[in-house]
Design a protein that fits this description.
The chain is an alpha+beta fold and about 80 residues long. It has one domain. It contains 3 helices and 2 strands; from the N terminus they run E-H-E-H-H. It is flat, with a radius of gyration of 17 Å.
């Protein structure tokens, strides 16, 4: 992660994500920002499924030199073993 970039993390509302030790860590690392999904966000299941499919079909085991390289090959399929 490049220095100076803010890292946004989307999490569920599980209690461990809000533990005092986690909150203390976040205070010491201000570039990390946690966003918590609403507890009644069943619509996120569809979005989660989309990103799981994207990862499985396009990103996993891919080798990219950077985001520009990745964007230039949207249909890149890494070699399947097996």
């Amino acid at each position: 992660m490049p220095v100076g970039k803010v890292v946004h993390v989307i999490l569920d509302n599980y209690a461990t994500h809000k533990h005092p030790k986690v909150l203390a860590w976040l205070k010491k690392h201000p570039r990390w920002v946690f966003h918590f999904a609403p507890t009644s966000a069943s619509w996120l299941n569809a979005a989660e499924g989309f990103f799981a499919t994207l990862t499985r079909k396009r990103l996993r085991r891919g080798s990219f030199r950077g985001i520009v390289d990745r964007r230039s090959r949207p249909h890149h399929r890494p070699h399947q073993q097996g």
